[in-house]
UniProtKB/TrEMBL annotation:
<dbReference type="Pfam" id="PF07687">
    <property type="entry name" value="M20_dimer"/>
</dbReference>
<dbReference type="GO" id="GO:0046872">
    <property type="term" value="F:metal ion binding"/>
</dbReference>
<protein>
    <submittedName>
        <fullName>Carboxypeptidase</fullName>
    </submittedName>
</protein>
<dbReference type="InterPro" id="IPR050072">
    <property type="entry name" value="Peptidase_M20A"/>
</dbReference>
<dbReference type="Pfam" id="PF01546">
    <property type="entry name" value="Peptidase_M20"/>
</dbReference>
<dbReference type="InterPro" id="IPR002933">
    <property type="entry name" value="Peptidase_M20"/>
</dbReference>
<keyword id="KW-0121">Carboxypeptidase</keyword>
<keyword id="KW-0378">Hydrolase</keyword>
<dbReference type="InterPro" id="IPR036264">
    <property type="entry name" value="Bact_exopeptidase_dim_dom"/>
</dbReference>
<dbReference type="GO" id="GO:0004180">
    <property type="term" value="F:carboxypeptidase activity"/>
</dbReference>
<feature type="active site" description="Proton acceptor">
    <location>
        <position position="142"/>
    </location>
</feature>
<dbReference type="InterPro" id="IPR017150">
    <property type="entry name" value="Pept_M20_glutamate_carboxypep"/>
</dbReference>
<keyword id="KW-0645">Protease</keyword>
<feature type="active site">
    <location>
        <position position="81"/>
    </location>
</feature>
<feature type="domain" description="Peptidase M20 dimerisation">
    <location>
        <begin position="177"/>
        <end position="279"/>
    </location>
</feature>
<dbReference type="InterPro" id="IPR011650">
    <property type="entry name" value="Peptidase_M20_dimer"/>
</dbReference>
<keyword id="KW-0479">Metal-binding</keyword>
Amino acid sequence: METYLDKKKPEMIELLELLVNIDSGSYDKEGVDVIGTILKESFEKAGMHVKVHREKELGNHLEIKASEESEPKIIIIAHMDTVFPKGEAKERPFKIIGERAFGPGVNDEKASHVQVLYALKALKASGSEAYKNVHVIFNSDEEVGSPSSKSLIKQAAENKDYSLVVECARPNGGIVTERKGVGNFSLSVKGKSAHAGVEPQRGKSAIEEISHKILQLQQLNQYEEGLSVNVGLVNGGTSSNTVPPNAEAEIDVRIKGEEQAAEVTKEISKIAQEEYVAGTTTELKGSISRPPMVKTEATEELVKVIQEAGDELGMSIQQLSTGGGSDASFTAVEGIPTVDGMGPMGEFSHSETDEYTDLKTFPQHTALLAKTIEKLSK
């Protein structure tokens, strides 16, 4: 497989360039669907069956198996959407500097699309039947919490023995065995406007009210326990000489343990219900959208298989935890041994300038995915 993939490297890079040069932000349905069409045609050409799950607002999702009737035991998850706005690909198209490929979404995670395709092609080319044991989900909305694909992932995960998620591998060869859960909340405060110079006493400051709440929210942080609450966006007011009648805040929550979800949600709700400035009202929206990905004994056994595959390729595979969220949480919470970071090696996802994929190791990490599938299928 290694020889096959080394020979196919120019093809892999060519497809990667095509994908990177197409905008596919989460809310750019047209762009995401172009990516989906290219991938559908590529996998069908490789002899796989592709089902398109159509969506009205967000991009369509792809479900890929060897045949419609097959019942594979390994689920592989990747996402087609990026965090970048329309026009980003034209402003800074795909380019190669040395052994690194740059461009919007190259690492997060268009290189993974190519990797999955060529891992399956490599298995077929080697005569292995293991490609029949794979159920691939390409979703379109991971960067915004997977609202329309969560149910598809959970359905596809039923009766699976293993889950391999192809977010990027870390520069030290690291794969991810633990991730924090993620929550997104928003506060909307309504007050009453008034002229700040003539009759300020008639006003009810929404900004003053939300400021009290922000200070209370920041007190919820328990970094040592793996709990973080961050008010990252604040908006409010109409002009500097008007008592502000409105204010909004966006809150990011990360949890290490599932038991923290209910407790932190309860505390945020309590803060939202408190009235610091009489006459204001507050609306709270949001929830913990992704559970934490917790490492288990079964995960450790899966890691051993991946490390064995790595040893055969001369790779040293390390495991690590991260505070970032991914769709790996949806399979992990179902009790399926799950490992993330099985994608190509790269860094600086979401960066407007530095995001890259390491082309030198591109075939090797593709071979690692293929060998892992093969070992898990025996």
